[in-house]
Amino acid sequence: MTAIAGDIAAAVADQVDWMETLLTELVAAPTELGREEAGQVVMCRAFADCGLQPQDVRLDAAALRAHPHASPFGWDVNAKRNVVATWPAASRGGRSLILNGHIDVVPPAAAELWQSPPYAPRRDGDWLYGRGAGDMKAGLVAIAGAVRALRLAEVALAGDVHLQSVVEEECTGNGALQCLIDGAHADACVIAEPHPDHLTIAQVGVLWFHVDIAGEPVHAAYAGSGHNAIDAAQVVLGTLRELERRLNAHPPPPYDTLAHPINLNPGLIAGGDWTSTVAAQCCLSCRLAMYPGTDPRTVQNQVEATIARVARSDPFLSAHPPRVRYDGFVCEGSEVGLDEPLVTVLSHAYSQVHGAPPALRPTTATTDARHFVRSGIPAVCFGPRAEAIHGIDERVSLSSMRKCAEVLARFILNWCGEAA
Ligand code: ZN
After folding, report:
1. Phi, psi at residue 294, to the nearest 5°?
2. What is the whole-number distance in angstroms between the Cα of residue 247 and the centre of ligand 1?
3. Are residues 199 and 209 in the same domain?
4. How far is the CA of 169 from the centre of ligand 1 (A)?
5. Domain match, 398 and 283 both
6. pLDDT per residue over 354-397, tens digit each?
7. CATH of the domain at 403
């Protein structure tokens, strides 16, 4: 054991102020879809602060659209960048590693319900509040903090460590995919999503679909002579719920331990243009999960068949069939083997810090891990403890961020090895 291996806790503790300042700066940047750049500027500086040379990986719309694993997107991505940096190995013989996190956050859901404004970071004891604090800016900070602690301790590694701050994890995963298109590779990947006390070894796939439903507008006083698109959307949703029930009836392992692994979420609805007019149109946007191993095309077919069945049962909808569009996630799930060296070595590092190994769990969410797994790079999620992600008063535990950095620092040493 080298001097640093015996004192990683102290090396990481020395980075706590730097890490907490960085987290505060990141949370203050409202990096919602299309506004990620303010966060990438901060991450660029953070990687430089680690003594590394940050580089841009620009999103290339044409390359993404041509790629079989990309999700469709109807918005402009050409001004977007991932920020990456490599800590190059000082000698050969070790294993290489990607440490990945996403800079994008979801909108605040209902800003007026927050105790303090979502993009005004607020500390209360061990908790740091703010949209994106847990999902997953604290994870990005833990990655950078681990690397900074080791580098300031003058550790030299026998394998490359690649840091990635990517865009669009919350809607397509195309940011992480662009890194792989541009040639990123390593022997393993850890994504510091807020999955504390366990490693996430399986994840569902996710489909976003948008249903455009037509109506026939008339004065509300004579509503019976028209066709209300909002009423029709409700019928469509009811039938989709039946599909959801069927998909949850017989979950395959490892999802057979969960009561309701497949969630259908109607996340957005918009329709009509006047309260006293029967709604002429409605758009219903949903997110639906699928088990690892399911081809997204299969789920698309199930959704389309379900909606076609609704349409056939209604004369107006038969003549004006709802249209299903795809914009955003069309992605399959993924799994890694429990005996993967990544799992055992990261579990060991976790045990060194926490005194007991982490649980190994599936998640009912998707993450960028699938892209790495599909590219032959085993990938798991492990990160700080967060509460209320995608909800109100999202918060992250600062002590868990430090512990996460400590686990990652130990893992980097064990995985990459010290240079000879
Ligand atoms: Zn996330």
Report:
1. -85, 130
2. 24
3. no
4. 7
5. no
6. 999 999 999 999 999 999 999 999 999 999 999 999 999 999 99
7. 3.40.630.10
Instruction: Pick the closest to residue 75 from 90, 91, 95, 59 (CA basis).
Output: 59
On whether the pTM is more than 0.85, the answer is yes
Q: What pLDDT does 2 receive? A: 57
Rounded to 10°, the helix 37-49/16-27 angle is 170
Q: Are residues 324 and 411 in the same domain?
A: no
What is the domain range of residue 353? 3-203+333-416
Q: Which residues have CB less than 5 Å away from ligand 1 (the ion)?
A: 135-136, 193
Q: Is the peptide bond before 254 cis (omega within 30 degrees of 0)?
A: yes
The reply to whether 196 and 266 lie within a common domain is no
pLDDT at 1 over 50: no
User: What CA–CA distance (Å, rounded) separates 191 from 138?
Assistant: 12
Cα–ligand 1 centroid distance for 344 (angstroms) = 23
Quote the ligand 1 centre to 35 CA distance (angstroms): 16
Name the domain count of the chain: 2
- E strands, 192-314, in order: 198-203, 205-214, 264-271, 281-290
With beta carbons less than 8 A apart as the criterion, state whether 168 and 33 touch.
Answer: yes
Cα–ligand 1 centroid distance for 137 (angstroms)? 9
